[in-house]
Amino acid sequence: MVWKPNVTVAAVVEQQGRFLLVEETTADGVRLNQPAGHLEEGESLLAAVVRETREETCRAFTPQAMLGIYRLPLPTLTYLRVAVIGSVGEADPALTLDDGILRTVWLTADELRAQPERLRSPLVLRCVEDYLAGQRFPLSVLVEGA
């Protein structure tokens, strides 16, 4: 068997001290996550985070900076999460939320810290903490191709 990590992207969006999250149905119940999902074949990382944010929030996402690359090893698989900081526009009423997404919510870091059991993974809060600590990298660190 060939091991390979699952590559995901996540959008970190903050407005007036609140972070954009989605409430989603998972095998473990309803959880909170940044707009996030899997990189698809042939897709760039930035295109993936723009697409996933649109699908899960009905909002256009504009990438502004790279937050980090996070490794989450689990017993049966490993995730590599590419987190991108950006901004969103208003929700497009012509779009519908992706399957499994119940709603979008805006929460403060303290609200997230108070309910760790509701987070999809520990990476949700880690991304918020890194954002609040001022961690930023230029988007140019994401090299696509040779």
TrEMBL record:
Its EC number is 3.6.1.-. Residues 2-129 form the Nudix hydrolase domain. Gene3D superfamilies: Nucleoside Triphosphate Pyrophosphohydrolase (3.90.79.10). Keywords: Hydrolase, Magnesium. It comes from the Bacteria. Pfam families: NUDIX (PF00293). CDD domains: NUDIX_Hydrolase (cd03675). Its cofactor is Mg(2+). SUPFAM superfamilies: Nudix. Belongs to the Nudix hydrolase family. NudJ subfamily. PANTHER family: NUDIX HYDROLASE 23 (PTHR43222), PHOSPHATASE NUDJ (PTHR43222:SF11). Monomer. This is Phosphatase NudJ.
